[in-house]
Structure formats: C-alpha cells, structure tokens
Amino acid sequence: MVMYLIKKQLVTVLRKGVLMKKRLLSYIEYAISEVERSDIDKAAFREQLLIQIQFFQHERLVHLIVTVTFAILFMMTAGLFFITENMSLLLLGGLFLLLLIPYISHYYLLENGVQKLYTVYDKTV
C-alpha cells in the first residue's frame, strides 16, 4: 500500500512538473516576443507580466518549501539509519531521495524561469 502511494505521488509530481514546465517556457517565449514588438501597450503588458510573475513566484515558493521538507526528511532518515542501522530506514531514505530529485529539478526550472521573466520585465521599463 505504501509503495502504491509513493508511486502515485511520484507520477503526480512528474506530470504536474511537465505541465508547469511547458506553461512557464511557453510564457517566457510569448513575453520575449511581446517585448520585441513596438506596437503593444507597454503599461498593460507590464501589468499582465507582473501578475504572471507573481503566479510563478508562488509556485516557486511552494516547491521550495516541499523541496526543503523532503531534504530534511531525507537527512533525518539518513542520520537515523547511521545511528540505528535499521534497513527499513535505508529504504525510506531511498524513497525520499527518489521524490527529492524531481522536486530539485522542478525548483531549478522555476527559479531560472522567474529570473528570466525578471529580465523580460526590466526590458519593459
């Protein structure tokens, strides 16, 4: 039962990460193309861009909290394993690590994407 729940969580994380990656990358492309146009209302675009940046910042914050939580859980499990040498803790630590890797990858994407949107915003000022 536990393995099923962890597998389901991992699939959900990967699926949502792929959708957010597509959304973020397509919005960055859209924002860059809009900034390069000369016939747009810069103030309206800047306002829309700020709203999207706030959405992505919120997503980044949530993933930072989740990533740090899983990292702490992994470190605690590893520490307990080294103290007690209980093999079930090794398995649990491996599962935390298995979930931690996609979270780190996704957070990296969000962080770099938001930074890119900051540079796009700076071009509108």
Textual characterization of the structure:
The protein has 125 residues and is mainly α. The protein has helices at residues 2-36, 42-84, 87-124. It has one domain (2-34, 44-124). α1 (2-36) runs antiparallel to α2, α1 runs parallel beside α3 (87-124) and α2 runs antiparallel to α3.
Question: What descriptive keywords fit this protein?
Answer:
mainly alpha; 125 residues
Mean pLDDT metric: 87
Helix content: over 70%
> Total strand count, please?
0
> Over the alpha carbons, how many angstroms does the gyration radius reach?
19 Å
Structural domain tally: 1
Please tally the helical runs, counting DSSP H or I stretches of 4 or more residues: 3
Extract low-pLDDT stretches: none
Q: Whole-Å distance between the termini?
A: 54 Å
Name the structural class. mainly alpha
In what range is the share of β-strand residues?
Answer: under 5%
The secondary-structure element order is HHH
Major β-sheet annotation = none
- Overall body shape: elongated
Reconstruct the topology from this structure.
Elements: H1 2-36, H2 42-84, H3 87-124
Helix pairs in contact: 1-2, 1-3, 2-3
Short précis:
The chain is an all-alpha fold. It has helices at residues 2-36, 42-84, 87-124.
